[in-house]
Amino acid sequence: MNIVILSSTEEIAKAAADLYTNLLADKPNAVLGLATGSSPVPVYDELIRRYEAEEVSFKDATAFLLDEYVGLPKGHPESYAEFIKRVFVSKVDFSDGAVNGPDGNASNPKKAADEYEEKIVASGGVDLQILGIGTDGHIAFNEPGGSLASTTHTQVLTEQTRVDNARFFDGDINQVPRFCLTQGLATIGRAKSVVLVAQGEQKADAVAALVEGGVSALWPASVLQFHNDATILVDEAAASKLKLKDYYRAAYEGEQALSALED
Ligand code: F6R
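Above: the input record for the complex with fructose -6-phosphate. Below: its predicted structure, written as tokens.
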């Protein structure tokens, strides 16, 4: 795992955007994994800025969302399909139909989960997946206690996640759906690279468990310890409970020095 402690949200956004920009320069038809929630929004803002400056294009790329609520009416502004359209996809040049998400209105959600998994596999797999992390350590909507080997599945949201997400639903937990469709931990683990972004003190416990805890269903993000190309971009507050902070800083500087020696 590559742990990078940065001093601001802007720096995190630029570092994550660099990964997307570099990937698309090498592979314009890359398969991108997109997350919703607040954490990646500054990354999308930076990518929009670069698109407007003609520094990056998404026209040949495809994308897969991580997750979707079950049962919100089609077009609901807080459905993840609408959210990602509003904050990112409508502001850059993805082709029509290039951005996929699980079907939260399917009459058979479990079948929809299987179909979504198959679609990701058929695309050749995600090249670069961006992730946020829940205060309870979830990634996508893989809540504590689930299988570390899960593929796309239906999930009952925890009370904690519904409380956290009530801010998108007029502060009313009763409006937050109880169920969702989510890529599984194995699905995410198959992405060739992942970049997780976390800001703020409220993420500090989850980040410490992700990076330095035992790999455990109690902290689903900890499964990323098994990923061989995972970058964790955190601000000082989110990093505040990491025991090996000084080493991560030294290792990051050292890696940059080593990269400068490459051809
Ligand atoms: C959203 C998602 C979730 C969020 C997580 C953190 O697609 O997969 O795992 O990343 O709930 O949300 P924020 O960033 O709003 O704190």
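Notes for the reader.
Residues 2-262 form a domain with the Rossmann fold fold (CATH 3.40.50.1360).
DSSP finds eight helices and ten strands in the chain.
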